[in-house]
Please model this.
Amino acid sequence: MTEIVPFEDLDRALARSRETREPLFLYWGTKWCPPCAEMQMTVLQRPLFLARSANLIATTIDGDAPGAQLCGDRIDSEVYPTMLLLDADEREWVRMPCGLTEADFCSVIDAALRCRSPVRALADTLIHQSRPLREEELELLASHYWPQDRRTYPGTQRLTLLDRLDVATVGAQASFVPRVLVWQLVQRAAYRAIGPTTAERQTFYERFQALLDSQQATFSTLYYILVGLEPVFEYLCDSDAGRRRVLTELLLRVLDRLTMQETLTWTERLISLSAALSLDPSSLAQRTRTLVAKADAATVSATERQSVMNMAGHVVRQIGLTEESIRLFCTEIERSPWPTYFMPYVAEMYMEQGAKDEAFRWWLRSYDETSGKTTRFELGVRYIAALVRHAPKDRAQIERTVTRLIAERGEDADMPRGRMRKSLRLLARTLGDWKP
Model:
């Protein structure tokens, strides 16, 4: 078994792939990122994946490393984690989603190793119906992280592609089939401006009901709906209170089971609880406090705590216990190797309480105490955005911070790339809207 090996840049990893004729598994993330930490605990440091990585060039590129944002541009992502299987010519075989079990994650890798085909080629075959797709090809398309892929049949073309995939998997009994419905719902919710027909909405409403009422309503299947629940509910229910009530009751039963399912990780259980709280916050307060206390006591690893305690702080905040959430995050700030991630949350809650000076102190700390260059720039922009929003008359502090932030980056080649570019755009919009 081999561990994921860090490379300084993508080109070195691709050169190694060409030398060995082994495909490249690329993990682009950071240590402070909670979903990245969860992936480490559930898949990337687990035996099944490590066994698979013996036949891959398994590579990690840290988002704060020099040149990392150029890598982000090349893989067309601004989101951590991004996980891809690429061939030596940098063609994308599959873009892996979060939320999968270790076994399902490795099953997708196995399917990709059997197919050895770019996802674009498979999508073209599906769209043009040039031949029937084999089961492993359908598994790759069903498991591909479509919302993160901005290149392969983007925009409304994506809906056509997923509809074709839905038809192609009719009658199949494989465990990956429900993922197609999830992607259809998530992507349709993202393109609501198109306006679904009454018949279309009814069909998806009934299919989602059936999924929730089946044994296939697992955390792994539902993950991307649970972390973006409201847009999907709006798509399915629109303004129909009766529909929403029925779906809410069904989903709450599923979430009750998932929240108490001990085979799930604490992060997965708390994500399920968070989704339930978004539907029914009033009756789950005591369960929330009990589960958070158990999760805190049971989670020892620093990596795992970065994910678990992030969710713990948020669910406590969801039930209105702001002071308790602040205390929880502050305790974790003292304990975590990556504490500045939590500081903006503390700042936001102090601002909600009207403690403006304390809020600004936490936003500034998050910027001052972060060393990674990309993350430091992001947190500096967030501090400036907070100043512009809550203290627009403090011209001297805003101008001083902007000058400092830009000067720190100097001639950094990563500035116009990846997440840095995203932060620059936010900074430009913030200053453009500023009315001192």
Summary: The chain has 22 helices and five strands. The first helix runs from residue 10 to 20. The first strand starts at residue 5 and ends at 6. Strands lie at 5-6, 24-29, 57-62, 82-86, 92-96.
